[in-house]
Amino acid sequence: KANSLSLVRFDRNDYSVPTAYAHRDLTVSAGIEQLRVLCGAEEIATHERCWEKARTIFNPIHYLARLERKPGSLYFARPLQEWALPDCFELLRRRLEAEFTDGGTRRYIQVLRLLERVSLWDGSAAIERALELGVHDADGVRLILQHRSEQPVGLFCLEGRPQLKSVRVAEPDLK
Fold this sequence. Notes:
- The protein has helices spanning 64-69, 78-81, 87-99, 104-113, 120-133, 138-149, 162-165; strands at residues 7-10, 13-16, 27-30, 34-39, 42-48, 56-57.
- By secondary structure, the protein is of the alpha+beta class.
């Protein structure tokens, strides 16, 4: 069972799970190198297996939802203390806090929450591009991420389809 700190104990170590799963019964599946935490059939967390004892293994991404409700803990939260983010994150944080004195930290946390869906590498590349463009908010970074993930549409080739060459589509009225 996950405790109030969103930690699951296994083999005398504590492993983090997303905060939405605190106080819930979970299943731990451990191998030699990896530990998986499941809620029903859904895999909610994966950690590298720790063979030491009395250790706490955090994934900072698991705590971002709670951080959004308590932005003051950004600098003091234990799960985030050893999180080594690229320099572009710190630069973005400073710019947001300077531009939005009352809500800059909250806006920065919204950018961090994008890491729940993308890799750290993709997120840092999008932030670097946003900083180049002078964009300082989560929506701008999200748009850059979406643009990078879009696949170009291939052209439809009529070769080998003679029956389609005679089909004519009327031009639409764009008024």
